[in-house]
Amino acid sequence: MLKEISCPDCHWHRLVGTAEKLRLLHQVGMLRREENPDQAIIEELFQRSSRKLTCGECGRVGLRIDFPRDEEEDWGDGRVCEQCRKTIPAERLEIFPDTKICVACQQKDDDGHDDTQPDFCPRCGEIMISGTSRGGGLTRYRLRCPRCG
């Protein structure tokens, strides 16, 4: 039975079958002795291992395990966007059959709105760091350059 594992942080996802489930269970130490365990045991242990599984992209420990969408149910709906995990409409896939992201995420990429890009110092180009402002009252956060101050 296929399952989809996905990372809640970076939206990485992958479909896994029985052989991959066994490999992941051995990797996290939840299945050691039996060569051919019962399918029900594999499914139960795999479901319980979600807190121990590691993301293949960002390294986060703790993944979601879901049933993959049924092919008949998705007919005409399109596929899932790799960035936001929303469904890509079938019309977009007709025009761009190899696309892996939806219109909204493509627009963000085209406009240069990449949330993962750090802010750089306008004077020296160093990556800015977040810090708190000094003074009484409310704590305020601001970006500052570690080199320029």
From TrEMBL:
Keywords: Metal-binding, Zinc, Zinc-finger
GO molecular function, one term: zinc ion binding
Record-linked InterPro entries: Znf_DskA_TraR (IPR000962), Znf_DskA_TraR_CS (IPR020458)
Protein name as it appears in the record: Zinc finger DksA/TraR C4-type domain-containing protein
Residue stretches in coiled coil: none
Entry-linked Pfam families: zf-dskA_traR
Boundaries of every Zinc finger DksA/TraR C4-type domain copy: 78-108
